[in-house]
Design a protein that fits this description.
This protein is of the alpha/beta class. It is built from twelve helices and 14 strands. The strands form four sheets. The chain has an eight-stranded parallel β-barrel, surrounded by five helices. The protein has a two-stranded antiparallel ribbon with strand order 1-2. Helix 1 (32-44) packs across helix 2 (59-67), helix 1 runs parallel beside helix 9 and helix 6 (147-154) runs parallel beside helix 7 (178-190). Bound molecules: iron/sulfur cluster (2 copies).
């Protein structure tokens, strides 16, 4: 496994970052022992970088994995929607408690749309910066699906890390082209920001061309790492090979290409609209029948709507 410096954070990360969204309750909902096993297997293959979020409800898997490797430097990045200092304090304390760790390596403001959104989260960001001074956090940053979000982070020297949506087709970039995203990320990397990508497989939509999509993401010079969701050992094997630029055995590639994931909305949906408000892609709408429906071509299968539904009527499977 190759390791790179994450910008100027002083943190060295494996090129393959294990994305925790997939194994948690918003998606595969693996039993704890099974999820921990996949994570431990990834560590044994050289992965040292793990991306999660408060909304993913996956700290227990990480804690199980961390306990198996005492003393090993494993990098955890998490994120929260906190707006106020108090909310961010609660998010940070929850992460430290549930991960059983004194500090969190990287803490991000989740889904920042622009400089304006970041300004709206200033109190939470300032809390993180204070926590960094106290050694409770090593680096702070944002995650974003937008070019304007990257630009907003670029304006702020105190932002260490950017976690942007990026894939070979530009799927999910909400405010411009793939080329524009590539240009601003190149600028951000040159300014010393640590960049690791998300949605290299378009939330599963690019699985039929997974090899090409992974090659593209791992060959971007501005990206220190690429976060990929994994839920089985064979997926770890594929992504480790892709991260190293090595050929993937046909059998494994076929297995990956045959994976088809979908969003399911239960027919007893009550039409409250909370899921649509949460969707970063504007892929959900309330139909004439008063129920939520998805525009599949817009959906990145992120599962955020599932977390927003008060009745648990949405699943990604
Ligand atoms: S519909 Fe749900 S899973 Fe699809 S992009 Fe929107 S929030 Fe994510
Ligand atoms: S949040 Fe749940 S109940 Fe409300 S519209 Fe969405 S699926 Fe239906």
């Amino acid at each position: 496994m190759e390791y790179r410096n994450l910008g100027r954070t002083g943190i060295r990360v494996s090129r393959l970052c294990f994305g925790l969204l997939t194994i948690g309750p918003l998606q595969a909902n693996l039993p704890l022992a099974e999820g921990v096993d996949v994570l431990k297997y990834a560590v044994e293959q050289g992965v040292n970088f793990f991306d999660t979020a408060e909304i993913y409800e996956s700290y227990s898997y990480l804690r199980g994995m961390l306990r198996s490797f005492p003393g090993r430097e494993l990098i955890i990045s998490t994120k929260s929607y906190a707006v106020t200092a108090k909310e961010m304090e609660q998010s940070l304390e929850r992460a430290r408690r549930e991960l059983d760790r004194d500090y969190i390596d990287i803490f991000l403001l989740h889904e920042q749309e622009s400089a304006l959104t970041i300004r709206g989260h200033r109190a939470a960001l300032d809390y993180l910066l204070e926590a960094k001074k106290k050694g409770l956090v090593r680096a702070v940053g944002i995650s974003t699906h937008r070019i304007a979000g990257v630009r907003g982070a670029l304006e702020l020297p105190e932002i260490d890390v950017i976690h942007p949506l990026f894939n070979i087709k530009g799927l999910g970039i909400q405010d411009g082209t793939l080329q524009e995203m590539e240009e601003v990320l190149t600028e951000a990397a040159a300014a010393g920001k640590g960049i690791y990508l998300m949605k290299a497989l378009g939330g599963g939509n690019l699985l039929p061309q997974a090899r090409e999509a992974l090659d593209y993401a791992f060959s971007r010079p501005f990206a220190a790492a690429v976060a990929v969701g994994m839920k089985a050992r064979w997926e770890v094997d594929i992504n480790v090979l892709a991260a190293q630029g090595q050929p993937i055995p046909d059998q494994l590639e076929k297995l990956m290409g045959s994976e088809k994931r979908r969003l399911r909305i239960d027919p007893w949906c009550e039409g409250c609209g909370k899921c649509a408000e949460q969707c970063p892609q504007e892929a959900l709408f309330l139909g004439d029948d008063g129920k939520a429906h998805v525009r599949e071509e817009e959906c990145l299968l992120c599962g955020y709507c599932a977390a927003a539904c008060p009745f648990f009527y949405i699943k990604v499977y």
